[in-house]
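Let's do one together. I've listed all components of the complex below, 620 residues spread over two lines.
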Amino acid sequence: MGEFNVWTSLPAVAPEIGLTILAAVVLLLDAYLPKEKNRARNIAFVSAVSMAVLALTPFIWAPAPNTSELFWGGMVRHDALGQLFDVMILLAGAITVMIAVDDSGVGRRGEFHLIVIIVTLGGCILSSSADLVMIFVALETVSIPLYVLAAFRREDNKSSESGLKYFLFGSFASAILLYGFSFLYGLTGSTQLTAIAAGLNSEIVSGNLVAVLAALLMVIVGFGFKISAVPFHFWTPDVYEGAPTPVTAFVSVASKAGSFAVFMRFLIEAFGLPAVSADATSTLVVIDGQTIQTFWVNLLTVFSILSMTVGNVLALRQKNFKRLLAYSSIAQAGYTLMGLAALQAQSAIGQDIAMASITFYMFMYTFTNLVIFAGIILFVEATGRENIADFAGLQRRSPWLALAMTIGLLSLAGIPPAAGFFGKLFLFQAAVEANLVGLAMIGVLNAIVALYYYLIIIKIMYVDQGIDEDKPLAMPRSYAWVLGITSVVIIILGVIPTPIFDLAQQGAAAVRLAMGS
Amino acid sequence: MPPAVPTEFFVMLSMILFALGAMGVLLRKNAILVFMSVELMLNSANLALAAFARQWNEMDGHIFVFFVMTVAAAEVAIGLALIVAIFRHKQSINIDDLHQLEG
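Okay, and this is what the predicted structure of the assembly comes out as:
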Protein backbone atom coordinates (compact mmCIF):
# COMPACT_ATOMS: atom_id res chain seq x y z
CA MET A 1 0.00 0.00 0.00
CA GLY A 2 2.90 2.34 0.70
CA GLU A 3 2.72 5.97 1.70
CA PHE A 4 -0.77 7.40 2.08
CA ASN A 5 -1.38 10.21 -0.36
CA VAL A 6 -4.83 11.74 -0.34
CA TRP A 7 -4.61 13.11 -3.89
CA THR A 8 -3.69 9.82 -5.51
CA SER A 9 -6.32 8.07 -3.38
CA LEU A 10 -9.23 10.36 -4.24
CA PRO A 11 -9.95 9.03 -7.77
CA ALA A 12 -10.66 5.59 -6.29
CA VAL A 13 -13.71 7.02 -4.53
CA ALA A 14 -14.60 9.93 -6.84
CA PRO A 15 -18.14 8.76 -7.70
CA GLU A 16 -18.84 7.98 -4.04
CA ILE A 17 -17.76 11.47 -2.94
CA GLY A 18 -19.93 12.99 -5.66
CA LEU A 19 -22.91 10.91 -4.58
CA THR A 20 -22.47 11.89 -0.94
CA ILE A 21 -22.50 15.57 -1.86
CA LEU A 22 -25.47 15.00 -4.15
CA ALA A 23 -27.37 13.24 -1.35
CA ALA A 24 -26.80 16.22 0.95
CA VAL A 25 -27.91 18.66 -1.76
CA VAL A 26 -31.06 16.68 -2.53
CA LEU A 27 -31.88 16.42 1.17
CA LEU A 28 -31.64 20.23 1.49
CA LEU A 29 -33.64 20.76 -1.70
CA ASP A 30 -36.34 18.49 -0.39
CA ALA A 31 -36.45 20.40 2.89
CA TYR A 32 -36.32 23.96 1.59
CA LEU A 33 -37.84 24.06 -1.89
CA PRO A 34 -41.22 25.84 -1.78
CA LYS A 35 -44.24 23.58 -2.05
CA GLU A 36 -45.43 23.71 -5.63
CA LYS A 37 -46.68 21.28 -8.22
CA ASN A 38 -43.41 20.41 -9.93
CA ARG A 39 -41.32 20.18 -6.77
CA ALA A 40 -40.63 16.43 -6.73
CA ARG A 41 -40.20 16.45 -10.48
CA ASN A 42 -37.48 19.10 -10.24
CA ILE A 43 -35.71 17.17 -7.50
CA ALA A 44 -35.89 14.07 -9.69
CA PHE A 45 -34.33 15.86 -12.64
CA VAL A 46 -31.52 17.24 -10.48
CA SER A 47 -30.82 13.74 -9.12
CA ALA A 48 -31.01 11.99 -12.47
CA VAL A 49 -28.84 14.47 -14.35
CA SER A 50 -26.27 14.58 -11.54
CA MET A 51 -26.02 10.80 -11.39
CA ALA A 52 -25.67 10.60 -15.18
CA VAL A 53 -22.88 13.19 -15.00
CA LEU A 54 -21.24 11.31 -12.13
CA ALA A 55 -21.24 8.24 -14.35
CA LEU A 56 -18.52 10.08 -16.29
CA THR A 57 -16.20 10.38 -13.27
CA PRO A 58 -14.96 6.77 -13.49
CA PHE A 59 -13.72 7.71 -16.97
CA ILE A 60 -12.32 11.13 -16.10
CA TRP A 61 -10.32 9.75 -13.17
CA ALA A 62 -9.90 6.35 -14.79
CA PRO A 63 -7.54 3.81 -13.27
CA ALA A 64 -4.67 2.69 -15.49
CA PRO A 65 -6.35 -0.22 -17.27
CA ASN A 66 -3.64 -2.72 -16.41
CA THR A 67 -3.53 -2.08 -12.66
CA SER A 68 -5.72 -3.05 -9.75
CA GLU A 69 -4.37 -1.10 -6.81
CA LEU A 70 -5.57 -0.98 -3.22
CA PHE A 71 -6.43 2.40 -1.71
CA TRP A 72 -7.64 3.81 1.59
CA GLY A 73 -5.81 1.36 3.79
CA GLY A 74 -6.63 -1.69 1.66
CA MET A 75 -10.37 -0.96 1.81
CA VAL A 76 -11.12 -0.43 -1.89
CA ARG A 77 -9.65 -1.46 -5.21
CA HIS A 78 -9.42 0.93 -8.13
CA ASP A 79 -9.51 -0.95 -11.41
CA ALA A 80 -11.34 -1.19 -14.72
CA LEU A 81 -13.83 -3.78 -13.44
CA GLY A 82 -14.85 -1.54 -10.56
CA GLN A 83 -15.03 1.34 -13.01
CA LEU A 84 -17.50 -0.52 -15.26
CA PHE A 85 -19.65 -1.59 -12.32
CA ASP A 86 -19.68 2.00 -11.01
CA VAL A 87 -20.87 3.23 -14.40
CA MET A 88 -23.70 0.73 -14.66
CA ILE A 89 -24.90 1.31 -11.09
CA LEU A 90 -24.82 5.10 -11.49
CA LEU A 91 -26.74 4.91 -14.76
CA ALA A 92 -29.21 2.49 -13.17
CA GLY A 93 -29.78 5.07 -10.42
CA ALA A 94 -30.26 7.88 -12.92
CA ILE A 95 -32.69 5.87 -15.04
CA THR A 96 -34.63 4.66 -11.99
CA VAL A 97 -35.18 8.23 -10.87
CA MET A 98 -36.31 9.19 -14.37
CA ILE A 99 -38.83 6.35 -14.67
CA ALA A 100 -40.14 6.99 -11.16
CA VAL A 101 -41.10 10.58 -11.97
CA ASP A 102 -44.63 9.80 -13.13
CA ASP A 103 -45.25 6.78 -10.94
CA SER A 104 -48.16 7.83 -8.76
CA GLY A 105 -46.93 6.01 -5.65
CA VAL A 106 -43.34 7.11 -5.35
CA GLY A 107 -42.23 9.78 -7.81
CA ARG A 108 -44.16 12.64 -6.24
CA ARG A 109 -42.19 12.44 -3.00
CA GLY A 110 -38.73 13.98 -2.83
CA GLU A 111 -37.25 11.55 -0.33
CA PHE A 112 -37.68 8.69 -2.79
CA HIS A 113 -34.96 10.16 -4.99
CA LEU A 114 -32.71 10.71 -1.99
CA ILE A 115 -32.96 7.04 -1.00
CA VAL A 116 -32.18 5.95 -4.57
CA ILE A 117 -29.02 8.06 -4.43
CA ILE A 118 -27.97 6.38 -1.19
CA VAL A 119 -28.48 2.89 -2.63
CA THR A 120 -26.41 3.95 -5.64
CA LEU A 121 -23.69 5.15 -3.29
CA GLY A 122 -23.69 1.81 -1.50
CA GLY A 123 -23.57 -0.06 -4.80
CA CYS A 124 -20.58 1.92 -6.02
CA ILE A 125 -18.61 1.23 -2.84
CA LEU A 126 -19.69 -2.40 -2.88
CA SER A 127 -18.41 -3.11 -6.37
CA SER A 128 -14.88 -2.07 -5.45
CA SER A 129 -14.53 -3.15 -1.82
CA ALA A 130 -11.60 -5.33 -0.85
CA ASP A 131 -12.09 -5.73 2.89
CA LEU A 132 -14.64 -7.65 4.97
CA VAL A 133 -15.64 -4.53 6.95
CA MET A 134 -16.12 -2.56 3.76
CA ILE A 135 -18.10 -5.36 2.10
CA PHE A 136 -20.45 -5.68 5.05
CA VAL A 137 -21.05 -1.96 5.47
CA ALA A 138 -21.51 -1.41 1.71
CA LEU A 139 -23.85 -4.38 1.41
CA GLU A 140 -26.02 -2.99 4.19
CA THR A 141 -25.88 0.51 2.68
CA VAL A 142 -27.46 -1.05 -0.38
CA SER A 143 -29.91 -3.31 1.43
CA ILE A 144 -31.35 -1.20 4.24
CA PRO A 145 -32.55 1.68 2.00
CA LEU A 146 -33.96 -0.91 -0.42
CA TYR A 147 -36.14 -2.33 2.38
CA VAL A 148 -37.52 1.18 2.81
CA LEU A 149 -38.06 1.61 -0.92
CA ALA A 150 -39.88 -1.73 -1.23
CA ALA A 151 -42.34 -0.62 1.44
CA PHE A 152 -42.50 2.94 0.13
CA ARG A 153 -46.23 2.93 -0.66
CA ARG A 154 -47.33 2.65 2.93
CA GLU A 155 -51.01 2.91 2.04
CA ASP A 156 -50.68 -0.14 -0.18
CA ASN A 157 -50.96 -3.48 1.58
CA LYS A 158 -48.84 -5.33 -0.97
CA SER A 159 -46.00 -2.85 -0.78
CA SER A 160 -45.68 -2.97 3.02
CA GLU A 161 -45.87 -6.72 2.93
CA SER A 162 -43.13 -7.01 0.32
CA GLY A 163 -41.01 -4.58 2.33
CA LEU A 164 -41.34 -6.63 5.51
CA LYS A 165 -40.61 -9.90 3.71
CA TYR A 166 -37.58 -8.40 2.01
CA PHE A 167 -36.41 -7.02 5.33
CA LEU A 168 -36.78 -10.26 7.31
CA PHE A 169 -35.17 -12.47 4.67
CA GLY A 170 -32.50 -9.88 3.90
CA SER A 171 -31.38 -9.27 7.45
CA PHE A 172 -31.35 -13.03 8.10
CA ALA A 173 -29.03 -13.50 5.11
CA SER A 174 -26.82 -10.61 6.23
CA ALA A 175 -26.49 -12.14 9.69
CA ILE A 176 -25.40 -15.48 8.19
CA LEU A 177 -22.93 -13.68 5.93
CA LEU A 178 -21.52 -11.75 8.87
CA TYR A 179 -21.03 -14.91 10.91
CA GLY A 180 -19.06 -16.39 8.01
CA PHE A 181 -16.95 -13.23 7.93
CA SER A 182 -16.26 -13.45 11.65
CA PHE A 183 -14.87 -16.95 11.20
CA LEU A 184 -12.68 -15.94 8.29
CA TYR A 185 -11.32 -13.18 10.51
CA GLY A 186 -10.87 -15.58 13.39
CA LEU A 187 -8.92 -18.06 11.29
CA THR A 188 -6.61 -15.56 9.65
CA GLY A 189 -6.48 -12.51 11.90
CA SER A 190 -7.15 -10.16 9.02
CA THR A 191 -10.14 -8.51 7.36
CA GLN A 192 -8.35 -7.67 4.13
CA LEU A 193 -9.24 -10.17 1.40
CA THR A 194 -5.78 -10.85 -0.02
CA ALA A 195 -4.35 -11.05 3.51
CA ILE A 196 -7.06 -13.61 4.29
CA ALA A 197 -5.87 -15.68 1.32
CA ALA A 198 -2.31 -15.53 2.64
CA GLY A 199 -3.50 -16.41 6.15
CA LEU A 200 -5.55 -19.37 4.93
CA ASN A 201 -2.53 -20.72 3.09
CA SER A 202 -0.28 -20.56 6.16
CA GLU A 203 0.39 -23.30 8.68
CA ILE A 204 -1.92 -21.90 11.40
CA VAL A 205 -5.08 -22.88 9.57
CA SER A 206 -4.14 -26.50 8.82
CA GLY A 207 -6.55 -28.89 10.48
CA ASN A 208 -9.35 -26.34 10.29
CA LEU A 209 -10.72 -27.37 6.90
CA VAL A 210 -14.25 -27.80 8.24
CA ALA A 211 -14.27 -24.34 9.79
CA VAL A 212 -13.08 -22.74 6.54
CA LEU A 213 -15.69 -24.59 4.49
CA ALA A 214 -18.43 -23.66 6.97
CA ALA A 215 -17.41 -19.99 6.82
CA LEU A 216 -17.29 -20.10 3.02
CA LEU A 217 -20.70 -21.77 2.90
CA MET A 218 -22.22 -19.07 5.09
CA VAL A 219 -20.76 -16.35 2.90
CA ILE A 220 -22.12 -18.07 -0.21
CA VAL A 221 -25.57 -18.28 1.39
CA GLY A 222 -25.46 -14.56 2.15
CA PHE A 223 -24.40 -13.55 -1.34
CA GLY A 224 -26.72 -16.15 -2.90
CA PHE A 225 -29.61 -14.36 -1.26
CA LYS A 226 -28.55 -10.97 -2.61
CA ILE A 227 -28.22 -12.22 -6.19
CA SER A 228 -31.44 -14.29 -5.78
CA ALA A 229 -29.94 -17.63 -6.76
CA VAL A 230 -31.92 -20.82 -6.13
CA PRO A 231 -32.26 -22.10 -3.33
CA PHE A 232 -32.19 -18.64 -1.72
CA HIS A 233 -34.71 -17.04 -4.06
CA PHE A 234 -37.95 -17.28 -2.04
CA TRP A 235 -38.19 -13.56 -1.44
CA THR A 236 -37.71 -12.56 -5.09
CA PRO A 237 -41.18 -13.08 -6.64
CA ASP A 238 -43.02 -11.54 -3.69
CA VAL A 239 -40.77 -8.51 -3.45
CA TYR A 240 -40.76 -7.97 -7.21
CA GLU A 241 -44.53 -8.11 -7.40
CA GLY A 242 -45.34 -6.12 -4.28
CA ALA A 243 -42.77 -3.34 -4.41
CA PRO A 244 -43.51 -0.19 -6.42
CA THR A 245 -42.39 -0.91 -10.00
CA PRO A 246 -39.47 1.60 -10.15
CA VAL A 247 -38.13 -0.01 -6.98
CA THR A 248 -38.45 -3.49 -8.50
CA ALA A 249 -36.47 -2.24 -11.49
CA PHE A 250 -33.78 -0.86 -9.22
CA VAL A 251 -33.56 -3.97 -7.01
CA SER A 252 -33.23 -6.16 -10.08
CA VAL A 253 -30.25 -4.28 -11.48
CA ALA A 254 -28.29 -2.20 -8.96
CA SER A 255 -28.35 -4.54 -5.98
CA LYS A 256 -27.70 -7.52 -8.23
CA ALA A 257 -24.81 -5.95 -10.16
CA GLY A 258 -23.08 -4.74 -6.99
CA SER A 259 -23.51 -8.11 -5.29
CA PHE A 260 -22.16 -10.03 -8.27
CA ALA A 261 -19.15 -7.71 -8.44
CA VAL A 262 -18.26 -8.18 -4.80
CA PHE A 263 -19.05 -11.92 -4.83
CA MET A 264 -16.58 -12.32 -7.71
CA ARG A 265 -13.94 -10.23 -5.95
CA PHE A 266 -14.43 -12.14 -2.71
CA LEU A 267 -14.00 -15.56 -4.33
CA ILE A 268 -10.97 -14.46 -6.36
CA GLU A 269 -9.15 -12.51 -3.67
CA ALA A 270 -9.83 -14.65 -0.62
CA PHE A 271 -9.59 -18.08 -2.26
CA GLY A 272 -7.24 -17.52 -5.16
CA LEU A 273 -7.03 -18.48 -8.82
CA PRO A 274 -5.33 -21.48 -10.44
CA ALA A 275 -1.92 -21.03 -12.07
CA VAL A 276 -2.29 -19.94 -15.67
CA SER A 277 0.79 -21.73 -17.02
CA ALA A 278 3.33 -24.32 -15.97
CA ASP A 279 5.83 -21.80 -14.61
CA ALA A 280 3.30 -19.45 -13.01
CA THR A 281 2.44 -19.77 -9.32
CA SER A 282 -1.02 -20.77 -8.24
CA THR A 283 -2.64 -18.51 -5.67
CA LEU A 284 -5.24 -21.10 -4.76
CA VAL A 285 -5.94 -21.65 -1.10
CA VAL A 286 -5.07 -25.24 -0.20
CA ILE A 287 -5.87 -26.55 3.27
CA ASP A 288 -4.92 -30.07 4.37
CA GLY A 289 -4.33 -30.96 0.73
CA GLN A 290 -7.83 -29.85 -0.28
CA THR A 291 -8.21 -27.05 -2.80
CA ILE A 292 -10.99 -24.80 -1.57
CA GLN A 293 -11.79 -23.67 -5.10
CA THR A 294 -13.03 -27.12 -6.11
CA PHE A 295 -15.58 -26.88 -3.32
CA TRP A 296 -17.07 -23.55 -4.29
CA VAL A 297 -16.91 -24.19 -8.03
CA ASN A 298 -18.93 -27.40 -7.60
CA LEU A 299 -21.38 -25.67 -5.29
CA LEU A 300 -21.89 -22.72 -7.64
CA THR A 301 -22.28 -25.08 -10.61
CA VAL A 302 -25.16 -26.77 -8.81
CA PHE A 303 -26.70 -23.41 -7.87
CA SER A 304 -26.30 -22.21 -11.43
CA ILE A 305 -28.12 -25.23 -12.87
CA LEU A 306 -30.85 -24.98 -10.22
CA SER A 307 -31.35 -21.24 -10.73
CA MET A 308 -31.57 -21.47 -14.50
CA THR A 309 -33.95 -24.40 -14.49
CA VAL A 310 -36.20 -23.41 -11.60
CA GLY A 311 -36.36 -19.79 -12.76
CA ASN A 312 -37.25 -20.66 -16.34
CA VAL A 313 -39.73 -23.42 -15.54
CA LEU A 314 -41.62 -21.33 -13.00
CA ALA A 315 -41.58 -18.31 -15.30
CA LEU A 316 -43.52 -20.32 -17.88
CA ARG A 317 -46.72 -20.29 -15.84
CA GLN A 318 -46.72 -16.69 -14.61
CA LYS A 319 -49.55 -14.31 -15.48
CA ASN A 320 -48.30 -11.17 -13.73
CA PHE A 321 -45.61 -9.39 -15.74
CA LYS A 322 -43.56 -8.34 -12.70
CA ARG A 323 -43.67 -11.84 -11.27
CA LEU A 324 -42.55 -13.25 -14.59
CA LEU A 325 -39.59 -10.87 -14.56
CA ALA A 326 -38.77 -12.02 -11.02
CA TYR A 327 -38.43 -15.62 -12.20
CA SER A 328 -36.61 -14.42 -15.29
CA SER A 329 -34.14 -12.58 -13.06
CA ILE A 330 -33.57 -15.77 -11.04
CA ALA A 331 -32.76 -17.55 -14.29
CA GLN A 332 -30.46 -14.71 -15.37
CA ALA A 333 -28.62 -15.03 -12.04
CA GLY A 334 -28.16 -18.70 -12.92
CA TYR A 335 -26.52 -17.84 -16.24
CA THR A 336 -24.23 -15.33 -14.53
CA LEU A 337 -23.23 -17.88 -11.87
CA MET A 338 -21.86 -19.90 -14.79
CA GLY A 339 -19.25 -17.16 -15.18
CA LEU A 340 -18.24 -17.51 -11.52
CA ALA A 341 -17.89 -21.27 -11.84
CA ALA A 342 -15.73 -20.67 -14.93
CA LEU A 343 -13.11 -19.01 -12.70
CA GLN A 344 -11.61 -22.48 -12.35
CA ALA A 345 -10.13 -22.06 -15.88
CA GLN A 346 -6.43 -22.89 -15.98
CA SER A 347 -5.52 -20.40 -18.69
CA ALA A 348 -5.07 -16.65 -18.52
CA ILE A 349 -7.57 -16.10 -21.30
CA GLY A 350 -10.12 -18.38 -19.63
CA GLN A 351 -9.97 -16.55 -16.31
CA ASP A 352 -10.12 -13.16 -18.00
CA ILE A 353 -13.13 -14.12 -20.09
CA ALA A 354 -14.88 -15.49 -17.00
CA MET A 355 -14.56 -12.17 -15.14
CA ALA A 356 -15.22 -10.04 -18.21
CA SER A 357 -18.31 -12.02 -19.23
CA ILE A 358 -19.89 -11.48 -15.79
CA THR A 359 -19.19 -7.76 -16.06
CA PHE A 360 -20.54 -7.52 -19.59
CA TYR A 361 -23.62 -9.54 -18.70
CA MET A 362 -24.46 -7.28 -15.78
CA PHE A 363 -23.80 -4.21 -17.93
CA MET A 364 -26.22 -5.20 -20.65
CA TYR A 365 -28.70 -6.66 -18.12
CA THR A 366 -28.94 -3.27 -16.40
CA PHE A 367 -30.19 -1.55 -19.54
CA THR A 368 -32.29 -4.50 -20.67
CA ASN A 369 -34.24 -4.78 -17.44
CA LEU A 370 -34.67 -1.04 -17.09
CA VAL A 371 -36.19 -0.65 -20.55
CA ILE A 372 -38.77 -3.35 -19.82
CA PHE A 373 -39.61 -1.95 -16.41
CA ALA A 374 -39.92 1.57 -17.86
CA GLY A 375 -42.47 0.16 -20.28
CA ILE A 376 -44.37 -1.61 -17.50
CA ILE A 377 -44.52 1.55 -15.37
CA LEU A 378 -45.82 3.57 -18.28
CA PHE A 379 -48.46 0.95 -19.07
CA VAL A 380 -49.56 0.38 -15.48
CA GLU A 381 -49.83 4.12 -14.84
CA ALA A 382 -52.14 4.44 -17.84
CA THR A 383 -54.27 1.34 -17.36
CA GLY A 384 -53.81 0.18 -13.77
CA ARG A 385 -53.31 -3.43 -14.85
CA GLU A 386 -50.09 -5.46 -14.89
CA ASN A 387 -51.01 -8.90 -16.20
CA ILE A 388 -49.29 -10.07 -19.36
CA ALA A 389 -52.61 -10.57 -21.14
CA ASP A 390 -53.42 -6.87 -20.61
CA PHE A 391 -50.56 -5.94 -22.93
CA ALA A 392 -52.49 -7.34 -25.89
CA GLY A 393 -52.52 -5.01 -28.85
CA LEU A 394 -49.94 -2.69 -27.32
CA GLN A 395 -48.37 -2.19 -30.71
CA ARG A 396 -51.53 -0.45 -31.98
CA ARG A 397 -51.77 1.71 -28.85
CA SER A 398 -48.15 2.83 -28.71
CA PRO A 399 -45.86 1.45 -31.42
CA TRP A 400 -42.68 2.95 -29.96
CA LEU A 401 -43.32 1.56 -26.49
CA ALA A 402 -43.98 -1.87 -27.98
CA LEU A 403 -40.78 -1.62 -30.02
CA ALA A 404 -38.66 -0.64 -27.00
CA MET A 405 -40.09 -3.47 -24.91
CA THR A 406 -39.50 -5.88 -27.78
CA ILE A 407 -35.86 -4.89 -27.90
CA GLY A 408 -35.62 -5.48 -24.15
CA LEU A 409 -37.32 -8.87 -24.35
CA LEU A 410 -35.15 -9.96 -27.29
CA SER A 411 -32.11 -9.00 -25.25
CA LEU A 412 -33.29 -11.06 -22.26
CA ALA A 413 -33.94 -13.97 -24.59
CA GLY A 414 -30.48 -13.60 -26.13
CA ILE A 415 -31.45 -12.93 -29.74
CA PRO A 416 -29.25 -10.72 -31.93
CA PRO A 417 -28.99 -7.84 -32.64
CA ALA A 418 -29.84 -7.18 -28.96
CA ALA A 419 -27.00 -7.14 -26.41
CA GLY A 420 -28.22 -10.24 -24.59
CA PHE A 421 -26.92 -12.41 -27.40
CA PHE A 422 -23.29 -11.48 -26.75
CA GLY A 423 -23.91 -11.51 -23.00
CA LYS A 424 -24.90 -15.17 -23.14
CA LEU A 425 -22.31 -16.02 -25.80
CA PHE A 426 -19.45 -14.73 -23.63
CA LEU A 427 -20.73 -16.63 -20.59
CA PHE A 428 -21.02 -19.89 -22.54
CA GLN A 429 -17.57 -19.28 -24.00
CA ALA A 430 -16.17 -18.79 -20.49
CA ALA A 431 -17.78 -22.02 -19.34
CA VAL A 432 -16.32 -23.94 -22.29
CA GLU A 433 -12.84 -22.45 -21.68
CA ALA A 434 -13.08 -23.74 -18.12
CA ASN A 435 -13.98 -27.29 -19.23
CA LEU A 436 -17.55 -26.89 -18.04
CA VAL A 437 -19.07 -28.02 -21.33
CA GLY A 438 -21.95 -29.81 -19.60
CA LEU A 439 -22.88 -26.65 -17.73
CA ALA A 440 -22.78 -24.64 -20.94
CA MET A 441 -25.07 -27.20 -22.62
CA ILE A 442 -27.60 -26.90 -19.80
CA GLY A 443 -27.35 -23.13 -20.17
CA VAL A 444 -28.13 -23.33 -23.90
CA LEU A 445 -31.09 -25.66 -23.29
CA ASN A 446 -32.42 -23.26 -20.68
CA ALA A 447 -32.03 -20.32 -23.03
CA ILE A 448 -34.23 -22.21 -25.51
CA VAL A 449 -36.92 -22.82 -22.87
CA ALA A 450 -36.78 -19.14 -21.95
CA LEU A 451 -37.31 -18.13 -25.57
CA TYR A 452 -40.86 -19.40 -25.28
CA TYR A 453 -42.08 -17.09 -22.56
CA TYR A 454 -40.22 -14.03 -23.84
CA LEU A 455 -41.44 -14.43 -27.40
CA ILE A 456 -45.01 -15.07 -26.31
CA ILE A 457 -45.10 -11.60 -24.74
CA ILE A 458 -43.94 -10.10 -28.03
CA LYS A 459 -46.65 -12.05 -29.82
CA ILE A 460 -49.26 -10.76 -27.34
CA MET A 461 -48.12 -7.19 -27.88
CA TYR A 462 -48.10 -7.39 -31.67
CA VAL A 463 -50.68 -9.98 -32.74
CA ASP A 464 -53.34 -10.39 -30.06
CA GLN A 465 -56.46 -8.24 -30.01
CA GLY A 466 -56.76 -6.00 -26.95
CA ILE A 467 -60.01 -4.66 -25.52
CA ASP A 468 -59.23 -0.96 -25.82
CA GLU A 469 -56.91 -0.82 -28.77
CA ASP A 470 -58.41 2.41 -30.06
CA LYS A 471 -57.08 4.33 -27.02
CA PRO A 472 -53.48 5.36 -27.70
CA LEU A 473 -51.12 5.57 -24.72
CA ALA A 474 -49.62 8.97 -23.96
CA MET A 475 -45.86 8.94 -23.64
CA PRO A 476 -44.42 11.58 -21.27
CA ARG A 477 -41.16 13.07 -22.46
CA SER A 478 -38.98 11.69 -19.63
CA TYR A 479 -40.08 8.14 -20.47
CA ALA A 480 -39.52 8.71 -24.17
CA TRP A 481 -35.93 9.70 -23.38
CA VAL A 482 -35.33 6.72 -21.12
CA LEU A 483 -36.87 4.20 -23.52
CA GLY A 484 -34.98 5.69 -26.45
CA ILE A 485 -31.59 5.84 -24.77
CA THR A 486 -31.76 2.38 -23.19
CA SER A 487 -32.97 0.74 -26.43
CA VAL A 488 -30.20 2.38 -28.41
CA VAL A 489 -27.61 1.28 -25.83
CA ILE A 490 -28.90 -2.29 -26.01
CA ILE A 491 -28.62 -2.32 -29.80
CA ILE A 492 -25.16 -0.68 -29.77
CA LEU A 493 -23.89 -3.21 -27.21
CA GLY A 494 -25.38 -5.97 -29.32
CA VAL A 495 -23.75 -4.79 -32.55
CA ILE A 496 -20.35 -3.69 -31.23
CA PRO A 497 -19.80 -5.28 -27.82
CA THR A 498 -16.00 -5.09 -28.09
CA PRO A 499 -15.22 -1.70 -26.45
CA ILE A 500 -16.94 -2.63 -23.17
CA PHE A 501 -15.85 -6.27 -23.31
CA ASP A 502 -12.23 -5.37 -24.04
CA LEU A 503 -12.16 -2.91 -21.16
CA ALA A 504 -13.65 -5.58 -18.90
CA GLN A 505 -11.07 -8.07 -20.11
CA GLN A 506 -8.23 -5.62 -19.41
CA GLY A 507 -9.65 -5.07 -15.95
CA ALA A 508 -9.89 -8.81 -15.43
CA ALA A 509 -6.26 -9.28 -16.48
CA ALA A 510 -5.29 -6.53 -14.03
CA VAL A 511 -7.12 -8.29 -11.18
CA ARG A 512 -5.47 -11.58 -12.11
CA LEU A 513 -2.00 -9.99 -12.20
CA ALA A 514 -2.62 -8.15 -8.91
CA MET A 515 -3.37 -11.54 -7.39
CA GLY A 516 0.03 -12.73 -8.63
CA SER A 517 -1.18 -15.67 -10.73
CA MET B 1 0.05 -13.45 30.01
CA PRO B 2 -2.48 -15.87 28.48
CA PRO B 3 -6.10 -14.72 28.67
CA ALA B 4 -8.00 -16.04 31.67
CA VAL B 5 -10.80 -17.51 29.58
CA PRO B 6 -9.72 -19.36 26.42
CA THR B 7 -11.05 -18.08 23.09
CA GLU B 8 -12.74 -21.42 22.39
CA PHE B 9 -15.23 -20.76 25.16
CA PHE B 10 -16.32 -17.50 23.58
CA VAL B 11 -16.56 -19.12 20.18
CA MET B 12 -18.66 -21.94 21.56
CA LEU B 13 -20.97 -19.43 23.22
CA SER B 14 -21.26 -17.46 20.00
CA MET B 15 -22.13 -20.64 18.11
CA ILE B 16 -24.86 -21.44 20.61
CA LEU B 17 -26.25 -17.90 20.31
CA PHE B 18 -26.09 -18.10 16.51
CA ALA B 19 -27.94 -21.43 16.47
CA LEU B 20 -30.58 -20.07 18.87
CA GLY B 21 -31.04 -17.03 16.68
CA ALA B 22 -31.28 -19.05 13.47
CA MET B 23 -33.83 -21.38 15.07
CA GLY B 24 -35.80 -18.39 16.26
CA VAL B 25 -35.93 -16.95 12.74
CA LEU B 26 -37.10 -20.24 11.28
CA LEU B 27 -39.58 -21.26 13.98
CA ARG B 28 -41.12 -18.06 15.34
CA LYS B 29 -44.24 -16.58 13.76
CA ASN B 30 -44.24 -13.14 15.37
CA ALA B 31 -42.38 -10.60 13.22
CA ILE B 32 -40.85 -8.85 16.24
CA LEU B 33 -39.54 -12.12 17.65
CA VAL B 34 -38.11 -13.08 14.25
CA PHE B 35 -36.43 -9.72 14.12
CA MET B 36 -35.05 -10.13 17.66
CA SER B 37 -33.60 -13.47 16.62
CA VAL B 38 -31.83 -11.81 13.71
CA GLU B 39 -30.33 -9.31 16.15
CA LEU B 40 -29.20 -12.23 18.31
CA MET B 41 -27.40 -13.69 15.29
CA LEU B 42 -25.68 -10.37 14.58
CA ASN B 43 -24.58 -10.15 18.19
CA SER B 44 -23.26 -13.69 18.18
CA ALA B 45 -21.06 -12.63 15.27
CA ASN B 46 -20.01 -9.60 17.30
CA LEU B 47 -19.01 -11.81 20.21
CA ALA B 48 -16.97 -14.04 17.92
CA LEU B 49 -15.29 -11.03 16.32
CA ALA B 50 -14.34 -9.51 19.66
CA ALA B 51 -13.04 -12.83 20.99
CA PHE B 52 -10.96 -13.42 17.85
CA ALA B 53 -9.63 -9.87 18.01
CA ARG B 54 -8.40 -10.52 21.55
CA GLN B 55 -6.86 -13.79 20.44
CA TRP B 56 -4.95 -12.14 17.60
CA ASN B 57 -4.21 -9.10 19.74
CA GLU B 58 -5.34 -6.79 16.94
CA MET B 59 -7.88 -4.02 16.75
CA ASP B 60 -9.50 -4.94 13.39
CA GLY B 61 -12.09 -7.18 14.98
CA HIS B 62 -13.07 -4.63 17.60
CA ILE B 63 -13.50 -1.99 14.91
CA PHE B 64 -15.60 -4.41 12.87
CA VAL B 65 -17.86 -4.83 15.92
CA PHE B 66 -18.48 -1.08 16.03
CA PHE B 67 -19.52 -1.05 12.38
CA VAL B 68 -21.81 -4.02 12.92
CA MET B 69 -23.47 -2.29 15.88
CA THR B 70 -24.05 0.83 13.78
CA VAL B 71 -25.58 -1.21 10.97
CA ALA B 72 -27.72 -3.15 13.44
CA ALA B 73 -29.03 0.12 14.89
CA ALA B 74 -30.04 1.29 11.41
CA GLU B 75 -31.71 -2.04 10.82
CA VAL B 76 -33.69 -1.74 14.06
CA ALA B 77 -35.01 1.66 13.02
CA ILE B 78 -36.12 0.41 9.61
CA GLY B 79 -37.41 -2.93 10.86
CA LEU B 80 -39.62 -1.53 13.60
CA ALA B 81 -41.00 1.07 11.19
CA LEU B 82 -41.91 -1.66 8.71
CA ILE B 83 -43.54 -3.77 11.41
CA VAL B 84 -45.61 -0.77 12.57
CA ALA B 85 -46.67 -0.13 8.98
CA ILE B 86 -47.83 -3.73 8.61
CA PHE B 87 -49.62 -3.63 11.95
CA ARG B 88 -51.63 -0.59 10.86
CA HIS B 89 -53.01 -2.53 7.91
CA LYS B 90 -53.63 -5.91 9.40
CA GLN B 91 -53.81 -5.38 13.18
CA SER B 92 -51.44 -8.35 13.34
CA ILE B 93 -47.74 -8.98 12.99
CA ASN B 94 -47.97 -12.71 12.54
CA ILE B 95 -45.89 -13.57 9.47
CA ASP B 96 -48.37 -16.28 8.51
CA ASP B 97 -50.86 -13.49 7.82
CA LEU B 98 -48.63 -12.13 5.06
CA HIS B 99 -50.21 -13.78 2.07
CA GLN B 100 -51.22 -11.02 -0.29
CA LEU B 101 -48.38 -12.08 -2.56
CA GLU B 102 -48.40 -15.68 -3.64
CA GLY B 103 -48.19 -17.78 -6.74
